[in-house]
Amino acid sequence: MPHIGLFIPCYIEQFYPQVGVATYELLKTLGYQISFPLHQTCCGQPLANSGYACESKKSVTQLLSRFEAYDYVVGPSASCVYHIRQHTASLLKDHKPLKNTAQKFLDLTEFIFSQNRQNDIQGFFDGRIALHKSCHGLRRLKLGKCSELMGKEENQQAVLLQQIEGIEIVTPQRADECCGFGGTFAVTQEVLSTRMGMDRLQDYLNAGAEILTSGDMSCLMHLDGLIKRNHLPLKTMHLAEILYQAVQQKQSSVKSSAYVQ
Question: Which of 176, 170, 178 has the alpha carbon at shortest distance from 198?
Answer without folding.
Answer: 178
